[in-house]
Amino acid sequence: MLKRKKEFQDLTKTKEDHEYHDLSYGMEYRKMKRTLVERLDQGPVICAEGFLFEVEKRGYLASGEFVPMVSLEHPEALENLHKDFQHAGSDIVEAFTYNGHREKMRVIGKEELLEPLNRAALKIAKKVADNPLDGGEPNLMAGNISNSNIWKEGDNESKIEVHKMFNEMVEWAVDEGADMLIGETFYYAEEAYTALDIIQKAGLPSVITIAPMGVNAMMDGVSVLDTMKELEQRGADVVGMNCFRGPETMMPYLREARKILKCHMGALPIPFRTSKDHPTFFNLPDDDSCTCPAPHGRTFPTALDPLYCNRYEIQEFAKEASKLGINYLGVCCGATPMHIREVAEAAGLTVPASKYREKMENHFMYGSNERIAEHMQEFGDKA
């Protein structure tokens, strides 16, 4: 496995082979921070995103509403979340501005907090990105724009409004020092193209990931593969998929896309067991003896817990994606730091959290350590 700090040393080795004091070494890192594309050209880049579920579980966000007020109300909690994902191996600190756009702020009656929320989230992400836990190369800080949920085919007014929303969020991200810009979770092809156009005008590296719904096509009728091909032709640095779909229903598209795309690709599934019959997490059934269903009648978003993929399923997805040559890897809504560590290690990386991966050999009942009492091992099948 590659170790991040050594990897960067080898790539930037110059005078006296790193005989720097810690202070000057850190300064050298900052001067030589690689761009997104440079990193992707050299190997895997891990991105944690989809913070809505994790922040809600930590008690700082209302499910259903899903507005990232945490950057204003509990900035310390957001900073700690980014650090936890950084520890797990994320190379990118994505500002938590998903759903923090003007229309959503209007829905909750807090439009006046739009810019403060965005700038606070960007500043927190920048602080964490510039201070990696291992003292190595700084992470990349990413600004974010995403599905507006008001884009409507044939409605020019909605498209003009989305254009304005994207423009202002990109402007704030650039102003706060973003290294790259992510446009994510688009289920309209034209909205994805619009996001890319605005990002490109800002002059920063672009990641565009789409999220087709259960109809298995974009909602404006464009096929998934045609949308990805068009994004590549328009010059996106990374094209891929994120959210809505778990490993089983995302991977078939990635396999086909890899055959036609020459650009860097991204793969960031949700960690839930979607299937051919239920390709997204919006209508996943819980048929496994659930005795207390959600009062709103569906598992999404508050009763998905029994439908999680285990860590080995996420690991296998990341291994296959990596073998396909997909270097931009992560997990979206529902991701925990554990999932990000599994993705990083599956891509061949050793990260700070690797120190704490499972050590079943020392388990009191199922372990193989010679110090484990035999009578406890015998309890294993009876426990």
Task: Give an overview of the whole structure.
The protein is of the alpha/beta class and 383 residues long. The chain has a single domain, classed as Alpha-Beta Barrel (TIM Barrel), CATH 3.20.20.330. 41% of the residues lie in helices and 11% in strands. The chain contains 15 helices and 10 strands. The strands form 2 sheets. It has an 8-stranded parallel β-barrel, surrounded by 9 helices. Strand 7, helix 12 and strand 8 form a beta-alpha-beta unit. Helix 9 packs parallel to helix 10. The longest helix has 20 residues. The two termini are 36 Å apart.
Largest pleated sheet: 8 strands, parallel, barrel
Strand order of the largest sheet: 2-3-4-5-6-7-8-9
Give helix and strand order, one letter per element, not per position.
EHHHEHHHEHHEHEHEHEHEHEHEH
Indicate the CATH topology.
TIM Barrel
Shape: globular
CATH architecture: Alpha-Beta Barrel
* Name of the level-1 CATH class: Alpha Beta
CATH superfamily: Homocysteine-binding-like domain
The amount of beta strand, in percent, is: 5-15%
> Mean pLDDT, as a whole number?
92
| Number of β-strand runs | 10
Please tell me how large the radius of gyration is. Answer: 21 Å
For the record, give the distance between the C-alpha atoms at the N and C termini, rounded to a whole number: 36 Å
Helical amount among residues, as a percent range? Answer: 40-55%
Task: State the low-pLDDT regions, or none.
Answer: 12-30
Helix and strand content put the structural class at alpha/beta
- The overall number of domains is 1
Q: How many helix segments? A: 15
